């Protein structure tokens, strides 16, 4: 059974870089044609797609984050990562990782999701 | 600011039918992008309950159904049960934004 688990600091200072990792178990990232994505949810608000990455390193980012976000894959550890730089209080949110599956662009959905990790941006 | 609009809340008595709308535009739902739906109980991660417009994952009751028409989509819950009380989010792809978008979210309350 596919399982995803986020990890990373729960507190980040403004202007610094936030780094999160998603460990995948139950399947190999590199044997899948799927993408792997990050989604966030500010407290009391809706969901926002940040970006997705394939094991090959091919990425697709939300234009709203494009200048601040970097995603990478480590196939040897079966995990993928998110870096978001120049964070502000507006980046405080629960961050989820998920498999981004489906037959192609415009038709993908997220399943399953990790449990999520709260990242607070504060000095 | 989401490009997919949902009603903030809907409610119904046990056994009733409720529908949740997801209104988009010609660059997402109207362009033919698939619509997916997620259920999120308090303090938990979202779970897909409908993918590819009207496909239910294994384990999701057939009380849930999805449809789409023009620039909108809907999720219907028939025979509403207490366990259906949760937040529901629609999700699609927007060609103008070249990215994936979520709806504003709807809280379903079972009276």
What features would you describe in this structure?
The complex is a heterodimer of chains A (123) and B (111). Chain A is 0% helix and 51% strand. By secondary structure, chain A is mostly beta strands. In chain A, the strands form 2 sheets. In chain A, strands 2, 4, 5, 6, 9, 10 and 11 form a 7-stranded mixed β-sheet that branches. A 4-stranded antiparallel β-sheet of chain A has the order 1-3-8-7, with no helix packed on it. In chain A, strand 4 (35-41) and strand 5 (48-54) form a beta hairpin. Chain A is globular. In chain A, 37% of the residues are buried. Chain B has 111 residues and is mostly beta strands. Helices cover 0% and strands 44% of the residues of chain B. In chain B, a hairpin with a 4-residue loop joins strand 7 (86-94) and strand 8. Chain B is globular, with a radius of gyration of 13 Å. Classes of the chains: A mainly beta (123), B mainly beta (111). Chain A binds chain B through residues 39, 46-49, 52, 60-63, 96, 102, 105-116, and chain B through 2, 32-34, 36, 38, 44-48, 51-52, 57, 89, 91, 93, 95, 97-105.
Topology, pairings included?
The complex is a heterodimer of chains A (123) and B (111).
Chain A: E1 3-7, E2 11-12, E3 18-25, E4 35-41, E5 48-54, E6 59-61, E7 69-74, E8 79-84, E9 93-101, E10 109-113, E11 117-121
Parallel strand pairs in A: 2-11
Antiparallel strand pairs in A: 1-3, 3-8, 4-5, 4-9, 5-6, 7-8, 9-10, 9-11
Chain B: E1 9-12, E2 18-23, E3 36-40, E4 47-50, E5 64-69, E6 72-77, E7 86-94, E8 99-102, E9 106-110
